[in-house]
Amino acid sequence: MKPSRVAVALLALIFGAGTAAAFQEPSLAEIAKQEKKRRKAAAKAAEQPTRTITEAELKAAPGTTANPVVDAPAEPGTATPGASPGASPEKTDDQLRDEKRVEIQKKIDEQKERMAKVRKMMDDAQLELNDLSNQTMGGRRTALLKLVDDGTAELAACEARISELEEQARRAGVPVSR
Q1: 175: in domain
Q2: What is the pTM of this model?
Q3: CA pair distance 30, 23, nearest whole angstrom
Q4: pLDDT tier at 74 (50, 70, 90 boundaries)?
Q5: Does residue 68 belong to any structural domain of this protein?
Q6: Higher pLDDT, 26 or 68
Q7: In the chain, how many domains are there?
Q8: What burial letters (b/e) apply to 78-114, b meaning 16+ CB within 10 Å?
Q9: Domain housing 120
């Protein structure tokens, strides 16, 4: 006998409802239970003390390390593993700090030189403006006044750059002089 369309539709509805129920999203209560379990597990893991591995423990451990220490001196003309030819040894903190100090001091000195040049240019312009025998008028006077104003703005910008460099030096822990 041939199944009727109604019977096939009824069976599809029954089996479809069962599989649809399996694919439903979890309820809010289930999500809350899962979150509570997750938080308990995280709290339990946080309560366990952490262990700090020291350099001595790493050296004593058998096996290979990421950065092996070579105990024996290398023969002249042979390359050590992991070292590039002509590479200098790592710099100490004092050497790095001194290099940083020199770099920042050089930038401060450059700003001071720039300020001296701007001041000289401003003084020359102001001297010409103050000269009553010359009677500077028109475009030249306007240009000189603009030069003085621009110089004042440039001096302020240089002062700000020097302050930034001094702050950078302070953060790096290096002394610089103005």
Answers
A1: no
A2: 0.47
A3: 15
A4: low
A5: no
A6: 26
A7: 1
A8: eeeeeeeeeeeeeeeeeeeeeebbebbbebbeebeee
A9: 95-167
Answer yes or no: are the C-beta atoms of 151 and 120 closer than 8 Å. Answer: no
Residue 111: inside a domain, yes or no?
Answer: yes
Find the length of the chain: 178
CB atoms within 10 A of CB 118: 19
